[in-house]
Amino acid sequence: MKITITVENPTPEVLEKLLALAATPAAVVTAAPDDRWTPERARSYYDRLPPRAQQILLQVVEGEGECAADELKANGRSLRGSTGAFRRVLTEGKRTGLWPDALPVPLLSHIVGGQLKKLEMPGCGTEQYPHPAFRTGLRDLLPHGR
Question: How many whole angstroms separate alpha carbon 31 and alpha carbon 19?
Fold first, then answer.
């Protein structure tokens, strides 16, 4: 049996009481904040992206959270329409209840002078940095499983 409870903006006291209530023998309880990517959320997100957006996301993950647009366009590959999928898939997942509303978009475009310069995962150095969750969630798709 699986029971899912969603608590928005819990205080530390409420979260502690809820986890204590769920702590029964042989129970496995985990809590993922609504504004954090987890490996499971990252893999689910990846699986819903169109193929070109999947390739781009893997390049960004391989690039330790960022990738220059020129590298993404190598071998004549286009980025037209591909980057919009990142926000669109996240919005659809939130609308259908797959992911919490507070979950941030995992990739941001850096545009300079009207041109895309790079894509990067926001929040480097913070708890909200999505790269570790994506690296773990997509490990089996990355070269050498790194």
Answer: 8
Calculate what percentage of the chain has a pLDDT beyond 90: 53
Structure tokens at 50: 């169109």
Query: Which single residue is written with the structure tokens 């029971």?
Result: 3
Q: What is the pLDDT of residue 46?
A: 97
Helix, strand, coil percentages (3-state) for the chain, rounded to 5, are: 45, 10, 45
At 74, the amino acid letter reads A
What was the pLDDT predicted at 131?
96
Determine contact, residues 93/45, Cβ cutoff 8 Å: yes
H or E element at residue 120: strand 115-120
In angstroms, the CA 98 to CA 47 distance is 13
pLDDT the model gives residue 27: 62
What is the rounded distance in angstroms from the CA atom of residue 104 to the CA atom of residue 134? 13
More confident residue, 17 or 45: 45
- Distance between CA atoms of residues 37 and 103, nearest Å: 7
State pTM to two decimals: 0.77
**Phi and psi dihedrals of 37, rounded to 5?**
-80, 140
Rg of the chain in Å (alpha carbons): 17
